[in-house]
Here is the input.
Amino acid sequence: MKKPPSILALIFTSTACLFGLWFWWQTSTNPTAAWSRFELLNASGATARALGHGNQSIALWEKSGVDAEDLAAKKLKLARAEEIAGSAERSVALYRQVLQSQWVSTLSARKKNNIKRRVARLELLQGKIQESSPFLVEILDRTGDEATIFEKNIGQHQPSGDLLFLLDARDLVAESLPPVANGEVLIGNDEERLAAAADFVTLGGFYAKINQGDYAAAGLLAAAYETRSSLLGQADSDTVHSVLLLGPVYERLGRLNEAEKLYLAVMHAQEKAQGPNNPELSLYLRLLANVYSLQGRFTEAEALNVHIRRLFGDAYGGRRYVANQNHDRRLDINRPVSINFPLPEDYKAPDIVAASEYEIPLSKPPEVEEMHIRLAAELGEDGRNMPEQLKALLSLCAENSGQYLSLRSGYRSFETQTWLFDQTDHHGKVTRPGTSEHQLGLGVDIDVDYRLMRNSDRAYQCFEAHGWQYGFILSYPKGNKYLDGADTYEPWHWRYVGNQTARLYREIGPLNKPQEFLAALPCYEERARAGIWTSAGDVDICLDTQRYAPNRAVISASPRWDDTPNSEQNQQGGRP
Ligand SMILES: [Zn+2]
Here is the structure.
């Protein structure tokens, strides 16, 4: 039996229509069908058309009460498709749902991190820095020491994906935030805003440390400062911490007025909190005096210098100058060591002791050479030796910061330093033999929570504020040229010089020039004893004197440097 072709066509058309209807009905009411359609279109590259089906099926499943755990894997696929199609907001929402699911724990750590990097990047692209900051901090934490010592590694090692990610994010971070403190940026309740401020300080500290990171650092730290000062007050130590990081960034960017405002605010608050006669105020007074000098406001800078000397004079009296004649130099604990002042090959540090004997928390087994330090007994005042003072400083700052502090590296012999140096292709991470303070047994690298100390650590702020009271100074400030490498800023490396030298450095030493100061120490001591000060705006005669200029020559280990402390002839740092 034959049917007319028109009927066949009709049947065919209606079947096709019915199928179409059925298909439409299926994909809009049956999530499995919609999902298949999504996967098919997505696989064929028609991502934009696939998305409707994907979202539809997820919505249907959710409506029908399917467990969120069972959908996580599908949401991850859909999030990726949304990301490729350029819908940042929807893909972030999906990624976040995936991260909140239990299912995510079935993924490898690498895959999980990858999702977090994607979220952080997408949030940054939308200018949502506060939302992305917890992930950025997590990524930074994961880099461990790598991000901390990054400057020294340039050109040698391929940075990890995490570090590259953070470097790439630098400009997006800078664009997301106003570069100066001008009203509160962080949103949420107080607790959320303070948590974000803490993240911003961690990130800001990282960007402030690296090349071309100052714009990103300024935005992050300014936002953190505003929030902290309004919620915690100017005198709070967290607020001070943001100032100590932000101020120098402003100085480098030439925003001296903003730096001045910050230092002034914090100085007045500290004056109120600590009393007007506390020499600890010198930290802020010196920073402010330096800004005034940079602005050419020398009268104001000089008034602050006089004020600093009065604070020290009131607290310590005349003995702050005389005692150095008797002991520090004899123990050679003040000698400068750098590429300009290398140690002789046969230099042997005396009185090396095991740090474990003094109950100093260690990062390595106690018998390791690096877990030894100099005794460097102080003869004057309270007569404490170096290990005792290190222990006291570590416990003070551990308590202040709530962080775990331990000795990462102390004494290294010439042989050890040479061996370490050879391991690293004669560049970077390890200092050239003869130029390391570790060979003196007086340089210590400090670990915070089992990684190198960072400038953004609360413990670092504590060292900055109190180190001098225990005889420690920061050896390698930002921008120094003491070691091989462009900038060998090492916030983790602290040098013992004894209480009186550290105090003198805080009181009248050149800001952030510890090696120059040590090289010219006899000059500073003499001038201090004689009460002859360099006025703000004048050339610092001690630094200017040719006699103390570094000349790359080896400082003899002989008594030239070690005894008869009061004779200038014996203190020509840098002469062979
Ligand atoms: Zn070190």
Summary: The chain has a mean pLDDT of 87. DSSP finds 25 helices and seven strands in the chain. The longest strand covers residues 443-448.
